[in-house]
Amino acid sequence: MLHTDVSLKNFGNRPALVVADMKTCCEQITETDIDCNHIKLIGTSTDLEARRTKNITLPYLNNYSYNRRGKCDIRINITFNSNQNLNIPIIQRINFDTYLTRRTFSSLLTELKSNDKIRMN
To answer: Is 17 exposed, middle or buried (0-12, 13-18, 19+ CB in 10 A)?
Structure first.
């Protein structure tokens, strides 16, 4: 699973309703090929109390999260008072790069082998 995390902070004195969803999400397949149709992040909503911080996650359910590179534009709507329709829309761009270097990949394999030996004993 690939997931995008957004940290929210309410500096105000009133609680807010925050709704976040994907506007666009593009993966760079090769240097000349960009696909903006297959990644679909699942949106979420949350209440954010005054003077509080909260993290939200927008997941992309897939089988293989490594060796992907691209960018997602996340649409965040903040509503401070539903009675007055005070709504603030924000677009936040998030770049992602999950490519593994040979060094990182080797250390992950070494760690897995070590854990397997411990479990077997």
So the answer is: middle
